[in-house]
Amino acid sequence: MRTINHWINNAEVGSTSGNFGPVYNPATGEQQAQVGLASVSEVDAAVAAAKEAFTTWRSASLSKRAEVMFRFHELVVQNRDHIANLVSSEHGKVPSDAAGELARGIENIEFACGIPQLMKGNFSEQASTGVDVYSIRQPLGVVAGITPFNFPAMVPMWMFANAIATGNTFVLKPSEKDPSVSMFVADLLKQAGLPEGVFNIVQGDKVAVDRILDHPDISAVSFVGSTPIAKYIYSTGTANGKRVQALGGAKNHMVVLPDADIDMAADAAVSAGYGSAGERCMAISVVVAVGDVGDKLVDAIAARLPKLKVGPGTDPDAEMGPLITREHRDKVASYIEGAPAEGANVVVDGRENDLPKDGFFLAPSLIDSVKPGMKAYDEEIFGPVLSVTRVDTYDEAVQLINDHQYGNGTAIFTRDGGAARRFQFDIQVGMVGINVPIPVPVAYYSFGGWKASLFGDANMYGPAGIDFYTRTKTVTSRWPDPATSSVDLGFPQTR
Ligand code: NAD
C-alpha cells in the first residue's frame, strides 16, 4: 500500500504515529493509498522547522520572494495536466473540473508575484514639525492552513501563496481524503527555490488540527471547511490568542426573475449545480423561481440532465464524477429519499441511473417545490442535488435568502439592470453574481461569505489575504533640522 507522508524542510518525512487514514479512488471505491495521521510531536517537528526558517525568510528581499513565486507559477503551469489528474484520482472530479480549479488557484500565485507592490506601507511627511509617521507591513511568523477535500489544489493556494510571499513560513494540514496533490505542489515550491522549512505539510486529522490550534509558536490559522468545524476553529484559535480566518459551509440560491432568458438560466443552473458533483462551496443548491418561470425552468433543467455524462475521470467524455466517499454519497442520497415525505417532488432521481456499483457515484437529481423547514432546503447537501423553490415575488425571494443561515454566494438571472442593482443592495450574502452563477471573486478581490459561511471578519486571498498575513508597525520619527546640529554639517546655521 502506497503511503502518503508529511513534508518538512523540503523533504518527505514518514509518519511515526502508527495511525493511517484511507485514501480512496472514488471512481472504483478501492483504497489506493494510506496517509499518515500526525501525532502532536510530528506537528511540533513541522512547526519547529517553520519557526527556524522564519528568521531567514522574513529577511529575504521582496524581489527574491517574488522571484520564487514567478518560478513556482511557471512550474505549476508546466505541470497543469499532471496536477489535474492527481486531483481527479483522489477527489473524483473529472480532469476538466480539476483544471478549472487549478486555474483559479494559479491566479493566487500570480497575485502573490506582485508582492513588492503589495507590501508597501504608508508615509506621512511632516505630521508635526520635523516628525514623519509611517507604517510598514511585517509578517506574523509561523502560520497554518487547514483545508477541505473539495478543492485540494486551489484552497491551499488561496492561503500559502500570500502567506509565503509576505514573509511568513507555512504549515499546511490538507484534507486527509485527498492529500497527494499538496505533496506534489510542495516539491514544485522546492524546485522553485523556496528555502527549507518555509512550506511544510502535516497530514492528519483532529489530533493534528488541535495541536495547530494550541501550538504557542503558530501565530495565525486559516481554515476552509464545514460550518461546525469553522466555528470550532475560530473559537478555539482566537481563545488561544491566534489570528484566525475561518470559512464555512454554504447553501447558494440562484434567483430567476420572470424576464430571464430561460435557456441561459437553465444552462447556468446545470453547470453550477452539478459541476464537481455539487461538491463546491459556491455550487448553486437552490433555484428560486419567481412568478411564472417555475414550470418552464424545471422542464428546461430536467431536459438537460440525461445529456450530462456521469463517469470516472479517466473517461474523456465524462462531465461529472463520483462523490468523495461512500458515506457522503449515501448521505446525499438520503435527501432525495426523504424529500417526498416532506412534501417536495422528486423530478429527476439520480439514484435510478445505471452507474458503476462500486464507485461513489450518484447521478444528478432535481427536486421541485422545496421549502424552508424541509431538510433538503435547510441543510447543506454538498452533492449533485438541485432544489427548486417557487415564490410569487422578488421580495419573497430576497426574504428567503436573507433568512437562510448561510450567506456564501448567490446569483440573480434577469435582463433588468435595475432589478440586478436592487438585488446587490438588498441581499445579505457575501458574493453576488449577476447573470453569473458562481461568482467566485478573481484573485485581486477577496473571497468570503456572510453569516454562518464565515467566522470573524477576515476574507481570504487578494488584498484581505495580504492584510491577514501581515501586521502593521507604525513608526513616528523625529529628526531635528540639521541646521540645529551641534556638529557643523555644512548647513546654514539657524542657531
Ligand atoms: P470538513 O470541515 O469536514 O474538513 C475540513 C478540514 O477540517 C479538514 O482538513 C479536516 O481534516 C478537518 N476536520 C474535520 N473534522 C474535524 C474536527 N472534528 N476537528 C478538527 N478538524 C477537523 O470539510 P470537508 O468535508 O473537507 O469540506 C467540505 C465543506 O467545506 C463544505 O461544508 C463546504 O461548503 C466547505 N467549503 C467552504 C468553502 C468556502 O470558501 N466557504 C470552500 C470549500 C469548502
Characterization of this structure:
The protein is of the alpha/beta class. The protein has 2 domains: 2-248 and 453-476, Aldehyde Dehydrogenase, Chain A, domain 1, CATH 3.40.605.10; 252-434, Aldehyde Dehydrogenase, Chain A, domain 2. Helix content is 38%, strand content 23%. It is built from 16 helices and 23 strands. The protein has helices at residues 40-59, 62-78, 80-91, 95-113, 115-118, 154-165, 180-191, 206-214, 227-239, 262-274, 293-304, 326-338, 375-378, 394-403, 417-426, 462-468; strands at residues 2-4, 6-8, 11-13, 20-25, 30-36, 122-128, 131-139, 142-146, 169-173, 199-201, 218-224, 243-247, 252-256, 284-290, 345-348, 365-368, 385-391, 406-407, 409-413, 431-434, 450-451, 454-455, 470-478. It has a 7-stranded mixed sheet, with helices on both faces. A hairpin with a 2-residue loop joins strand 6 (122-128) and strand 7. Helix 3 (80-91) packs across helix 4 (95-113). Nicotinamide-adenine-dinucleotide (NAD) is lined by residues 146-151, 155, 173, 175-176, 205-206, 209, 224-226, 229, 247-250, 281, 380, 382, 408, 449, 453.
Shape type: globular
Number of helices: 16
CATH architecture of the largest domain: 3-Layer(aba) Sandwich
Mean pLDDT equals 97
- Strand order in the sheet with the most strands: 15-16-17-14-13-19-20
Instruction: Supply the CATH superfamily name of the largest domain.
Output: Aldehyde Dehydrogenase, Chain A, domain 1
Q: List the uncertain runs.
A: none
Gyration radius, in Å: 25 Å
Please report the total strand number as a whole number. 23
Largest sheet geometry? 7 strands, mixed
